[in-house]
Amino acid sequence: MRAEQPHGSPESSPTREDCLALDRSDSLAWARDEFVLPRDVIYLDGNSLGAMPKVMPARIDTCLREEWGNGLIRSWQDAGWIDAPMRVGAKIAPLVGADPGEVIVTDSTSINVYKLLFGALHALPGRTTILTIEGDFPTDSYVAEGLIRTLGKGHRLLRAKAGDLQRSVDSDTAVVLFTHVDYRTGRMHNVAEVTRAAHAHGALVLCDLSHSAGAVPVDLEAWGVDLAVGCGYKYLNGGPGAPAFLYVRRGLQDVIANPLTGWMGHADTFAFADAYVPATGIRRYLCGAPVILGVDALECALDAWAGIRIADVRAKSIALTELFIQLVDGSAELRELSIVSPREPADRGSQVTLQHEASREIVGALSDRLVLTDYRPPDLIRFGFAPLYLRFVDVWDAVRHLSAVMTGDEWQAKRGAPLRFVP
Ligand SMILES: *Cc1c(COP(=O)(O)O)cnc(C)c1O
């Protein structure tokens, strides 16, 4: 909260000219041109659905016409469809500090949480607790509860407050399940510390990277993380409902079992044997045939990362969020909005969340002005800053629109109006 922060001290606020200058000296500025962004739209929701790379339609067209249309069944081999989950996983690996062979693209994040939670509970049969963070992204705990019901062995899901996570690990904890960057507040957890605490008690760690992969540095190996999942359609720009990814530390791949033992995870898929034998390595976490159109789109989006260093992405992300916070602090019109994201950049992902009792109406009014953000109940407005395609001047313009919305009667007019569905 920012009760101590004075509003309306414009002498310290950057001007629009300052922001244009920042864009001119931005070493990532060129990357914006790789994406389709509608004119006049200020897109602050790339943390929810990434923008489309310009080469995507041609790439999908090739996949359809040449690979499917012409190649037909031959394309499983000739176009590399059969290896796509491993190949695309290997392209995600450097973004999360993993080796090729430790990451695979498959299924959705929710299903991957299910698979890896099962694997963790199965590997530590004497332990009954899945430990998670209160208020974390709900699909993860819904899936945990569903798994517990399915197993029927008396496991339980324990929710700790974010600050108490490490202290709450004990000798009954099988796995600590948490999101690296909180979807609501943008708070970034210290994964290495949580992992140390978990390991000190013999527990495993399953980290959800949905709000961090492609936005902040992730170093799974250095942090000692055992298991991870992440989303393909947020900062990785794989398209709506893009397949997700899954990481299992190499040394654990023989220990963490996949409960969804489908033919694609079999040691010899095309032997069509009666008995299931898991593949060695990361391929065992496949279940059925990969959704090639989705995997292909994600691969295309990942190719946009060639030549981009995540350290530069992080530096720009911090600069964008710092600018936003500074401008909000400096705007007298915004005094009714409080910043709920951490003010310390090291504790923050690539998003800033504001709080206001009329957040829903404000998001609607901003959308009318072509400033796309999103609303999370009961009273939060999320501003996502995708460093590959957001400009500093967009941040300046967005704050100006927000100020205009708060000053005029635009948001009051939204009372009771249906809000467009934003997943
Ligand atoms: C977006 C997101 C998901 C998405 O799950 P899907 O099953 O791919 O829809 C899961 N977990 C977190 C933390 C997310 O932010």
Give the gist of this structure.
The protein is of the alpha/beta class. 34% of the residues lie in helices and 13% in strands. It has helices at 16-24, 56-70, 75-78, 84-92, 109-123, 138-151, 165-168, 191-200, 220-223, 292-303, 310-329, 359-368, 392-407; strands at residues 35-36, 42-43, 52-53, 103-105, 129-133, 156-160, 173-179, 204-208, 227-230, 245-248, 338-339, 351-355, 371-372, 374-376, 380-384.
Description:
The chain has 423 residues and is of the alpha/beta class. The chain has 13 helices and 15 strands. Helix 1 packs antiparallel against helix 13 (392-407), helix 4 (84-92) packs parallel to helix 10 (292-303) and helix 5 crosses helix 6 (138-151). 47% of the residues are buried. The protein binds pyridoxal-5'-phosphate (PLP). Residues 108-110, 137, 139-140, 179, 183, 208, 210-211, 231, 244 line the site of pyridoxal-5'-phosphate. Pyridoxal-5'-phosphate (PLP) binds at residues 108-110, 137, 139-140, 179, 183, 208, 210-211, 231, 244.
